[in-house]
């Protein structure tokens, strides 16, 4: 799961820390996850709309609404799973972002990316302490 090909809008942790810094990367992950939550809510509205439209319609329109219902449900399930994944992943990494020496949050530089072990080595920008973050 850690090295899965990601959405081009969501940089991986190492690339994100390298390009943006951890705090910006984390902020983008949260924004992206909440965009997926919004999509989940919109698909729920779509589900209710298709149910409402089925009432008193012809058999052909009921079939179209049934297809739209299934599509809305599939999008909603996908968006909810993506929302939860992005949120939990970002929170898991945020819990490892405090420097073990000076407790500074999220201010570190990337030293190395060990993709095989799904781990990055980072260095505190304040006190130069290094530690590993598992992703
Ligand atoms: Zn430090």
Distance N terminus to C terminus?
A: 9 Å
**Structural class estimated from helices and strands:** alpha+beta
| Distinct ligands | zinc ion
Residues in helices, as a percent range: 55-70%
Total helices: the number is 3
Low-pLDDT stretches are none
Globular, elongated, flat, extended or rod-shaped: what is the shape?
rod-shaped
Quick check: average pLDDT? 93
**Spatial arrangement of strands, main beta sheet:** 1-2-3
**What value does the Rg take, in angstroms?**
21 Å
Strand content: 5-15%
- Give the total of beta strands: 3
What kind of sheet is the major sheet?
A: 3 strands, antiparallel
Order of helices and strands: HHHEEE
Structure description:
The longest helix has 36 residues, at 59-94. This protein is an alpha+beta fold. The mean pLDDT is 93. It has a domain at 13-99. Helix 1 crosses helix 2 and helix 2 packs antiparallel against helix 3 (59-94). The chain contains three helices and three strands. It has a three-stranded antiparallel sheet, covered by helices on one side. Zinc ion (ZN) binds at residues 99, 101-102, 104, 124, 126-127, 129.
Structural topology:
Elements: H1 13-19, H2 22-54, H3 59-94, E1 108-114, E2 119-124, E3 130-134
Antiparallel strand pairs: 1-2, 2-3
The chain binds zinc ion.
The site of zinc ion has 8 residues, from loops.
Q: Care to give the gist of this entry?
A:
The protein is α+β, with helices and mostly antiparallel strands. It contains three helices and three strands.
């Amino acid at each position: 799961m850690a090295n899965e090909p990601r959405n081009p809008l969501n940089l991986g942790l190492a690339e994100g820390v390298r390009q943006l810094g951890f705090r910006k990367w984390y902020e983008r992950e949260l924004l992206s996850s909440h965009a997926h939550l919004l999509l989940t809510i919109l698909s729920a509205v779509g589900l209710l709309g298709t149910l409402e439209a089925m009432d008193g319609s012809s058999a052909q329109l009921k079939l179209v609404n049934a297809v739209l219902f299934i599509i809305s449900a599939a999008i909603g399930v996908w968006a909810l799973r993506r929302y939860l994944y992005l949120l939990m992943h970002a929170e898991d990494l945020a819990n490892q972002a405090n420097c073990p020496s000076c407790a500074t949050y999220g201010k570190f530089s990337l030293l190395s990316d060990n993709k095989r072990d799904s781990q990055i080595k980072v260095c505190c920008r304040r006190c130069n302490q290094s530690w590993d973050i598992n992703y």
